[in-house]
Amino acid sequence: MELIEQILHEGAQRVDELEVYLFSGFSVSARLKRHEIHYASGANQQGLSLRVIHKGHIGTSATMNPETWNACMDAAIASASLATPQDWEGLPGPENLDPTPVNYDPDVTPDAKTAKTLLSELVEGTKSYPVEITSGSAEVARYTGTLANTSGLCYQDYESMVSVGVETIVGQSTGYEYDASWKMDIDPRIVGEKAAYLAHSSQHGKDIVSGNYDIVLSPIALAQLLGGVFLPALSGKNVHAGRSRLASLQGQQVMDRTLSLRDDPFHPRGLSSCRWDGEGTPTRIVHFVENGILREFAYDLKTAYRYGKKTTGNAVRGGHGGSPTIGTHTLTLDGREENLREGRVVHVNDVVGAHTANPLTGDFSVELSNAYVLQDGTVEFPVRKAMLSGNVFNVLMETGGISKDTRVVGSMILPEIQLKNLAIIGS
Amino acid sequence: MEGIRYFDVRHVTGTVTHIDIDNTRVESAGTSFVDRAIIRILGQKGWGILAIDSYTRPNGRSFEELLKRGGSLASLTSQEVTLADVPGGIIPVPALREDPGDVHLEEKQELLSGIEKGARIDGIKSTRASYIERTETVRFENSSGEEYSYSLCRSGFSIMAIAEREGDMQMGYVRKHAIQDFNLRHRQECGNVAATRAIALLDARAPRGGAMNAVLDPELAGVFAHEAVGHASEADLVQEGGSVLEGTIGRQIASPSVTIVDDPSLPEFGFEPLDAEGSRVGRTEIIRKGRVQAFLHNRETLAAVGFGHAGNARAMAGEPPQVRMSNTFIENGDSMVDELVSECRSGILLKGSRGGQVDPGRGIFQFNAEYGYLIERGEVGEMVRDVSLSGEILKTLHAISLCARDKKMHQGYCGKGGQSVPVSDGAPHVLLIDAVVGGSGTH
Predict the structure, then answer these.
(1) Shared-domain flag, residues A244 and A329
(2) To the nearest whole angstrom, how far is the Cα of B348 from the nearest Cα of chain A?
(3) What is the pTM of this model?
(4) Which of A213, A337, B163, B242 could bond B198 through an S-S bridge, CB–CB 3.0 to 4.6 Å?
């Protein structure tokens, strides 16, 4: 705290406003090569991120060595002098927020023994099916961040994280599964078993005839398409900069009328849930899409002040010690729960190449991974190789419902979803 | 020290300077500071690794304490790691043509603004230009008493233009990166190229997917080499049993016109003067005239798998080295581009890249072109957009029927295991027979 006070004191002499974010973390991870532990590692991370605002000029800098904060402040001030000035109405002051961390579990202990136990259980889980492990990993981490500014705000937060992942193979059939939580409540055996099932059950794949099919996307596949295309279009910055297809559609239907897309920063399972955002604004539920109708876009202070809007508490910090930008905390999708596997559908666990989708127009054509043709819930055959094409914005306009169960995928908590009549290029 | 067979330290310090200009506004510009070290200790079995932000090399007993900490992590491992004896040594870093560090941030911003201005023509709704410059000093030492250090600067820019007409939007972009040079000068035309392409794409249609002949331009063919061959040839994947190229040494997996090489010693964007574990770098012919010759290696995979030489261990600052590609390319053939188009007869000419991905164990890859043109009766016709290609590693390489002789390298970044490293990919124009093309259109 002494260091932060010193930086704020110095900053107040030189600029109108200063924001300090001091971060530290410790993580232990271990990695499998085949079924044995190849390495165990411990990482001490630290970072200092400064943002200065002077007469509407905003400048940032960051360093991994907080002791060199002086050079970092010089760099932030130099950065501000170059930036185009904008309307600015001040950094947030302190509010009476509950300081209890929302995603911190003191039982998450970053030690090598914990990582080793997680890996042992992961390996055990894969033995449910006759497959080989190619690689796997377990990580246990704790982070602390302090956000303070010259308006008197000073919030300290703690986070914890435990994650496992494993890749399996049999012949040329592969499977990958992972899980992550801020609590010690993940079951590496189930993760191992699922990865083994995916590789085992995808063997002896058959070609699928090219044509249009009803598709069920797993939360993993859905997260890739939403994250690469739909989310950037909800950023207030992209909306005002002419880079969002949704820019002029507020109040109009942009999804199936049964679907609602929210950022819920208080979701108890969210890995990035928080009571205040990356610049200290109290967070709230942001209703991006309600019953198919586009309601809100995401704003941080900078974008909100510039365009005469209110921040939605959507500033997030990328990486450790990163500057705040617009993002989401815990994205959720609600809708009409249905049995998605009735009739004939293609179930897609993952896709290859989602990041090559056109982020502006939403057009995508990706390769399928662990896909199965299902008839009334029974696997008819695994698909050997096929591409799936469509447009993210269009395919979300008509769905066959979502699943009851959801899973955590990064900063999203998503169900499975059925999409109607998508093009598959098979043989 | 007891129980420690080997250690090395790789400490990276430096600065990252960026400029972001969004619709003529300087959104942000400035410099941040990097200081991260990775210390690897090889115990009786496997590795113990420490990552430390803001590292100062301790001396004497303090350094021994650090090694002990790593050694205790290593004691948890069960895999027996052997390191091949390989030549170390550093090759000269290319001389700086112009040091970006000598150019004032304001001048950089003005030059970038000039590029953005070039994109702001009629029909363009939004423009964004960004510049990134990373100067790093790497210090390496290991328990064999080898010590190396070098500094390297990588810089580059991108310009994106978005065209809009009656609610329809399309984008065009140009990206260029360089090592040991300042590459913002005399680039104004790049803005115009991005903008003109975005406008042209408004009239392009999405093609219908299916199997067809495809001519790939050097940028896309380079990505094809990277995704279809490069990743699967990384010997850590081979060692783990996660690559379809395992057991293929000496096998003909491509047509005889195909030779694919990786070479970190070339002064291209993926250049390394030595690799991340101190090994000497050099050329690897992964495929020669269609036959698999070698894999890409670090010291450990060379000992475990064989076929090739070490020198492809690469890492981000403060991250453990992985086996990675560097500058990967398909060698020139002897055809002319016109011959490829005429030989294609009916199909598609694909240009530019939006990236790709591979599942090396399954042997399936996918990559995406920025734009393309239909080829009808051996002639280039209507423009198309949003075209992907996918294929099977062990089959598709046989489908390269012709290679032109106009090889060009393109710069980019490649992700693996959570790390992103600078690479270059290259190729001449190539002709693929019966490629699987994905597209959501109807024509």
Answers:
(1) yes
(2) 16
(3) 0.95
(4) B163
